[in-house]
């Protein structure tokens, strides 16, 4: 595979950008080699600067549910840019976007737009703290909620990939208010709450984790958190930056029928443009300035181009329920295909899959929490990653990531992925 242009670009990037990238996982440090520099993408394919073509399983880490450069979204953006790019003033589309989110996400009654998932989670915990008058938050080891100070304690995704789940630079005073529990361990959460009685403002969770690889909640876990929060007056936040509009029209909360008090959303609602949002119960959201006392603002929030892109995608998803059926079928087909290849090869690695999210973990243990995810063979994942790349499949450059399918994948692409997976597994065993 010729990647000389990517190699040259990366050399230059290292002169001007820390680590040569604008977000750590892109650097390929966990898997070795040079990051692929992307030139363009269309439908199920992504193309690099050396004109190599890959089938996409990252999809901008989630948002490209309809595949790349979807024509509906392109047209919406083309229409919007004729009227300037930003006003810093209210617009019609923001109202439509809020109405659409409230209509689709069952627990959200009011919503505020921001510019990234990080902003959404930072703002949501500020509101939860303001509303309850309490300081502490509980998060789960291996969950990633963006790079806000409070969340860089036992964080997943790039933070753990790069060996800094507890980042330097986070003041001790902030860190002491973040309590962490093991995912899927209700008893541990109860103990934390008991030990910090009356002090916990919020429990924030990825209802289905994408950031230690794809990890599912065990039956009863989310329900247990819901009743614990009800009993203790704690605000339950579902961070649906990855799962919102992906696991169903109404996200993981709809899929699991457990309603949080607040929901954070991200990249998906911009169809790939920089966007985030947080929303929830009306009484809580009315605490947000200027309706209430908790301050949160943004010059570019509700940006007209991002709103146009996101609305086009959400409208499509809202009107085409079959999207979710198709994505679920694609996910199941891949998981089954991977399992039968592994059987053939005498391998017993773990695959976690739900709808259009999956991770193949290089461990034989079930992966239900962070220690299990961390027990994976990272070196093997790195070899597998490159073997897949050589076979034209673009994956997340770390074991601690979920893959994301799009509706642009046809049966032939899924068959290609299944075959590439089998061939790659065989190749790395040699
Ligand atoms: N929450 C979750 C669950 C995420 O997966 C991410 C990013 N992948 C974020 C928050 C942060 O979003 P952003 O990178 O847009 O700041």
From TrEMBL:
Q: Which domain of life is it from?
A: Bacteria
Q: Where in the cell is it found?
A: Cytoplasm
Spell out the InterPro entries in the cross-references: 4pyrrol_synth_GluAld_NH2Trfase, Aminotrans_3, Aminotrans_3_PPA_site, PyrdxlP-dep_Trfase, PyrdxlP-dep_Trfase_major, PyrdxlP-dep_Trfase_small
Q: Which residues carry this modification: N6-(pyridoxal phosphate)lysine?
A: 267
Q: Which reaction does it catalyse?
A: (S)-4-amino-5-oxopentanoate = 5-aminolevulinate
Keywords linked to the UniProt accession: Cytoplasm, Isomerase, Porphyrin biosynthesis, Pyridoxal phosphate
What's one GO-annotated cellular component?
cytoplasm
Pathway given for this chain reads: Porphyrin-containing compound metabolism; protoporphyrin-IX biosynthesis; 5-aminolevulinate from L-glutamyl-tRNA(Glu): step 2/2
- Residues annotated as signal peptide: none
Please give the Gene Ontology molecular function terms for this protein.
glutamate-1-semialdehyde 2,1-aminomutase activity; pyridoxal phosphate binding; transaminase activity
EC code:
5.4.3.8
Cofactor names from the entry are: pyridoxal 5'-phosphate
Keyword Translocase among UniProt keywords: no
Keyword Isomerase (UniProt): yes
Which PROSITE patterns does the record associate with it? AA_TRANSFER_CLASS_3
Gene3D superfamilies this protein is in?
Aspartate Aminotransferase, domain 1, Type I PLP-dependent aspartate aminotransferase-like (Major domain)
Q: Name one GO biological process term.
A: protoporphyrinogen IX biosynthetic process
Quaternary structure note? Homodimer.
The record's family statement is: Belongs to the class-III pyridoxal-phosphate-dependent aminotransferase family. HemL subfamily.
From the Swiss-Prot or TrEMBL record, give the protein name. Glutamate-1-semialdehyde 2,1-aminomutase
């Amino acid at each position: 595979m010729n990647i000389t242009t990517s190699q040259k670009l990366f050399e230059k990037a290292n002169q001007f950008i820390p680590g040569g990238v604008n977000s750590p996982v892109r650097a390929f440090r966990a898997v070795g080699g040079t990051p692929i520099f992307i030139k363009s993408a269309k439908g199920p394919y992504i193309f690099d600067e050396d004109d190599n073509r890959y089938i996409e399983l990252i999809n901008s880490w989630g948002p490209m549910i309809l595949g790349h450069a979807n024509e509906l979204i392109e047209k919406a953006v083309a229409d919007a840019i004729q009227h300037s790019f930003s006003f810093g003033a209210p617009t019609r589309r923001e109202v439509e976007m809020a109405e659409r989110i409230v209509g689709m996400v069952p627990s959200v009654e009011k919503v505020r737009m921001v510019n990234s998932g990080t902003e959404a989670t930072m703002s949501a915990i500020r509101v939860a703290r303001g509303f309850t008058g309490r300081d502490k938050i509980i998060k789960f080891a291996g969950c990633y909620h963006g790079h806000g100070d409070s969340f860089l304690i036992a964080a997943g995704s790039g933070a753990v990939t790069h060996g800094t789940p507890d980042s330097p630079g986070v003041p001790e005073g902030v860190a002491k208010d973040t309590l962490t529990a093991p995912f899927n361990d209700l008893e541990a959460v109860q103990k934390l709450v008991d030990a910090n009685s009356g002090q916990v403002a919020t429990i924030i969770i990825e209802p289905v984790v994408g950031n230690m690889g794809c990890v599912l909640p065990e039956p009863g876990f989310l329900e247990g958190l819901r009743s614990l929060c009800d009993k203790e007056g704690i605000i339950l936040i579902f961070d649906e930056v990855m799962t919102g509009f992906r696991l169903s029209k109404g996200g993981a909360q709809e899929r699991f029928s457990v309603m949080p008090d607040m929901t954070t959303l991200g990249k998906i609602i911009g169809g790939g443009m920089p966007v985030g949002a947080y929303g929830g119960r009306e009484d809580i959201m009315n605490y947000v300035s200027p309706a209430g006392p908790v301050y949160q603002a943004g010059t570019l929030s509700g940006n007209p181009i991002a709103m146009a892109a996101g609305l086009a995608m959400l409208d499509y998803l809202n009107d085409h329920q079959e999207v979710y059926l198709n994505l679920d079928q694609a996910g199941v087909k891949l998981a089954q295909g991977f399992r039968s290849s592994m059987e053939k090869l005498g391998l017993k690695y773990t695959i976690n899959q739900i709808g259009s999210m999956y991770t193949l973990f290089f461990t034989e243990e079930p992966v239900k929490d962070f220690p299990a995810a961390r027990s994976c063979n990272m070196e093997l994942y790195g070899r597998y990653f490159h073997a897949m790349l050589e076979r034209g499949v673009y994956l997340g450059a770390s074991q601690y990531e979920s893959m994301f399918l799009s509706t642009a994948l046809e049966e032939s692409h899924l068959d290609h992925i299944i075959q590439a997976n089998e061939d790659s597994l065989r190749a790395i065993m040699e």
